[in-house]
Description:
The protein is α+β, with helices and mostly antiparallel strands.
Amino acid sequence: MVLDFVSIIEQAKTQNKALVPYDTGNMYWNAIKIIPTASGYDLIIDDTIADYVYYTNEPWKKGTNPNEGWVGRFFEAVMKSIIAIVKSKTGDV
């Protein structure tokens, strides 16, 4: 069985869209990218497209950042989704 990992990653990303801070949609639609590598694929946040991503994830000096820690939560959830999707496609439940 051949798995289309780009589609699987896109599906996992979509399943966890609610974890990404969303104002204009730039971070979700443009900055989160799937990059082919020699060993597979990387899912990255391109900070040249969303240079403010750091500020959406870190604690603020004043007040509470409601999105603090979202990057870790998002990538952890995406990984769990990828595992579940692959298991469902291969019958390894």
